């Protein structure tokens, strides 16, 4: 059962990708077929004005739709028609509806007028008044007027129809452009567009798939990483050792009991400056190659070796794959319409309008030919009129009247049809213009409003899609804001601080792993470029080591004047003794010490008790006792009676008390805290001796690092000599551990900075960054601009132009009807005037006589000349109804 399920999944997957492939191929073919389109340069301002004009003041229908929607949302009952009635101004409605109304009117009038025009009998019944013999009909000025107005109107009609033929190109190009840009969009979206920096949804999907595969436990990538990590483990050991030793010394020096032995009124003079000078060594190490190298290695290990962050990344990738697949399917589905060759595709849908099967050109040609025919008919009618019209002297020959009537009816029908077509086209361009304005102005806000008004629920997914569309496609969106989908798409945050918190795809994909590793590598690169690789012989280290080697702590514990000055007894001690150290002898401190200590002459206890000394400013300070009156064995014995002192007795007592109670204990009691490295594997409290750490046959042994690559320390109380030894030991420690570190770095630098970096970047960092950078969706704006250019600014505006041409042509054609009507009317009136003496019965009798004559082949006299013209009139009467139907 499970197998079956998996099989069917795989099969649908295959089938789907095959269908996708086919659609892509069709898109390719369509791009070949339709692209490139030459869109003539567009004056957007003017084109927009035209669109607004045809869509109505600020897009009337669209506004009405939105108003209706908001009204319905507010619970009012309202429909689109009533909103339209409220919002549309009467002038606008009249302007849009006039051509159709004209067509309707002409159609109605036809039934009353044209047969009536063409039926002489009725004409006579209605307009007896008009039956007269016009003399001016032959007048030259009248004829010139007639001809000029006719030629002008006919010329205009034919020219307008000819110009409208040219417009078919705009419509066809617009539709071709729509096909081209849609196919291009589909192709770019799914397969990618390197020139516009878009990777394509299919490649993106594949890349994510590859990525998640290489992150599966046990993948070749992870195994490679593992092996390099284990080969370079020693670096971590060395760096941890150095790091912790560097931390340990400040601990030692900063320990309060070492700085101010509790209650002993002395402070450590070297501790603070030594700690400060250590800072530059710590900085050297922290910014150095070894540390950066280890940081990079540890970052890789942290991200890839331990399960949680890699499984987070895997799940993020899975999450990202989903919307990408949905997007791909949506695009293939929606835009696929423009590409599919099936019956419901765009190509089939527009067959009639574009391409070889287009009926646009033939239809425009038919209209044009019809206009020519109408013009030629009118021309012929006027020629006949000019040739044969007698100016009322005699009845015109029959063709004069019939031809002008025919031409007139032709022009009339033509005008009606053109009004109808033009009216329809105006409505089409009004709706098209409205849609186009909405497209041109599209942004997230308008998209949301439109969806709401169409009653489509706008949830977070739709909002995200709209946001993407807004930033990617909208022609009005801020050009400075990002066009990278990875920055736009929001996914549920990995560690949300509140319910429903989201985060951009870029953060989720990159921040987790790639950014961290990349950041660590950038630091390493920086260190490699600017820092020395070896540190053991670095001057900063040498300085610190020389400080450490020259430490003499007994000479560096100095009385704390403030404490003494506030003590009830000690405050009587002469201030000259404030500079006396805890060392028995005087000492001039070595010059290789931090400033403030180097070359300082420090008086010792002997000078204080017996010898005296001079301060830095040269003032002599006497010893407490004359030599013969004291028993002094530094630091064990001090016996002297202050009554035999060099000082006042009280001063002497104070100094003596201070010496005995606060100075001598410093030298003998375990007042200090020492800090030792724990020997790995030994009972707690076993010191690890730096002497045992040696380099043998190229490898370091006994480095005092635990198997878990850390070091541990322990502390214990100690006297000042041990403490001094403790501090001084760091000199040699630093020498050895930095040697060790340098050796390890030298061994492993290539493996980490090149091999490990190459593996991780090839399989993880670069793919992630490439993917994220390859999501620039600017190509969608090109699509949208191309689509609006071709569909709106070309096709719709061409339709609009054709519509106005036709309406004008129809109007001129109607005027032409008037001109022909004048000619016909004159001719008709003259004819009628010659007939007007005859009543209907006489005409009937004549008719009978004529029939008799024809039947009997007899010639007989015509009673009057007028009857001769009745026959043609009758003939016309019989043809007229035919025309009128
Ligand atoms: C995905 O992996 C396959 C083979 O492992 C490789 O051929 C293909 O180029 C990779 N695709 C991407 C986008 O990395
Ligand atoms: C876009 O950025 C440029 C420079 O960064 C700035 O001069 C311009 O004002 C910004 N435009 C907008 C619309 O923010
Ligand atoms: C110090 O000397 C005085 C007299 O010189 C004497 O009275 C006193 O007892 C002596 N003090 C001590 C502690 O010996
Ligand atoms: C170092 O090498 C020498 C000779 O090659 C050998 O005798 C000695 O045992 C080696 N020492 C260690 C610690 O391996
Ligand atoms: C490493 O091992 C030592 C000794 O076994 C132990 O004291 C220390 O806590 C360990 N450190 C870590 C980080 O596990
Ligand atoms: C100041 C004082 O008392 N000095 C005495 C020191 O000791 C000698 C003898 O040892 C005396 O002579 C001094 O008077």
Quick structural summary:
It is built from 30 helices and 14 strands. With 885 residues, the protein is mainly alpha-helical. β7 and β8 form a beta hairpin.
Structure characterization notes:
Residues 1-17 form the signal peptide. Residues 863-885 have a biased composition (Low complexity). Residues 855-885 are annotated as: Disordered. This is REV1 protein. This protein has 885 residues and is mostly helical. Among the domains are: 551-668, no CATH class; 675-718, no CATH class. It is 66% helix and 5% strand. It contains 30 helices and 14 strands. It has a two-stranded antiparallel sheet with strand order 1-4. Strands 2-3 form a two-stranded antiparallel ribbon. Strand 7 (613-614) and strand 8 form a beta hairpin. Helix 10 packs antiparallel against helix 14. It is rod-shaped. The chain binds 2-acetamido-2-deoxy-beta-D-glucopyranose (6 copies).
Span from first to last CA?
A: 75 Å
CA radius of gyration is 54 Å
Distinct small molecules bound, one entry per kind: 2-acetamido-2-deoxy-beta-D-glucopyranose
Helical residues, percent: 55-70%
Q: Would you report the number of β strands?
A: 14
Structural class: mainly alpha
State which percent range the strand residues make up.
5-15%
Calculate the mean pLDDT score and round it. Answer: 82
Strand order, largest beta sheet: 1-4
Largest sheet: 2 strands, antiparallel
Low-confidence stretches: 5-12, 858-885
Determine the number of helices (DSSP H or I, runs of at least 4 residues). Answer: 30
What's the overall geometry? rod-shaped
Biased composition (Low complexity): 863-885
Protein name: REV1 protein
Keywords: Membrane, Signal, Transmembrane, Transmembrane helix
Signal peptide: 1-17
